Amino acid sequence: MNALDDDQNFLCLNAAPAEMDQFWAHGWRHFGVYFFRYRTATHSDKRFSVMPLRIDLEHFALSRGQKRVLAKNCGARIVLRPTAIDAEKNALFNHHRRRFKENVPTSLDQFLSPVPSSVPCPNLELCVYHGEKLIGVTFLDLGQTATSAVYAMFDPAETKRSLGILMMLHSIEFSRANGFRYYYPGYAYHEPFAYDYKKRFRGLEYLDWELGWKPYVKA
């Protein structure tokens, strides 16, 4: 990307695993078949610098805080399966969207294709259950050497469980167990923001738009 290409996008109906690896490595993400990358974002009239992230799974290790999150959720049931949208997930989404005061998402169709398990690439849903109740879901793309989180949602009534972190940890566990090298958790910003929990993982790298991937060092 150069200074004139602050916001780029294209449509892709089908991408091979190795192609997805290349897209993620160059800062692309996607919602459904819509692929995009951008350098800046605006929230409440404030401009933020976008920082694509990935975790080098060879260098990942649990922190004390992450071990506490796992311990706190030891009774949760984790289910991994091909993605399918149903009434239960739509209901969870409608609870989740109430957290937002700006850029409020409208539906899961905004983030996933009509055939979410295979278009534009293989995708799994990682579901978190408390008893029989679905309290969190993250949708995980599968590439050849990497996985990538498309979207995550959780029940706001379960905030104390740190479900965003929990779902990342289980996504990392799955990715490592299946021989993937990288896990892409999405974007954060260089400036402080609600996405900062994504910056607290060992093995984290960020994409410098001019110089490529670098180890992330907390300022």
Overview of the molecule:
With 219 residues, the protein is of the alpha+beta class. The protein has one domain (7-215): Aminopeptidase (3-Layer(aba) Sandwich). Helix content is 20%, strand content 36%. The chain has four helices and twelve strands. The strands form two sheets. Strands 4, 5, 6, 7, 8, 9, 10, 11 and 12 form a nine-stranded mixed β-sheet that branches. Strands 1-3-2 form a three-stranded antiparallel β-sheet, with no helix packed on it. The radius of gyration is 17 Å and the shape is globular. The model has no long low-confidence stretch (mean pLDDT 95).
Number of strands: 12
Binned, the helix content reads 10-25%
Compute the CA-based radius of gyration.
Answer: 17 Å
Q: Judging from the principal axes of the Cα atoms, what is the shape?
A: globular
Distance linking N and C termini: 25 Å
For the sheet with most strands, the description reads: 9 strands, mixed
How confident overall, as mean pLDDT? 95
Instruction: Fill in the CATH topology.
Output: Aminopeptidase
Can you tell me the CATH architecture?
A: 3-Layer(aba) Sandwich
> Which structural class do the helices and strands define?
alpha+beta
SSE string, helix = H, strand = E?
EHEEEEHEHEEEHEEE
Structural domains: how many: 1
- What is the strand content? 35-45%
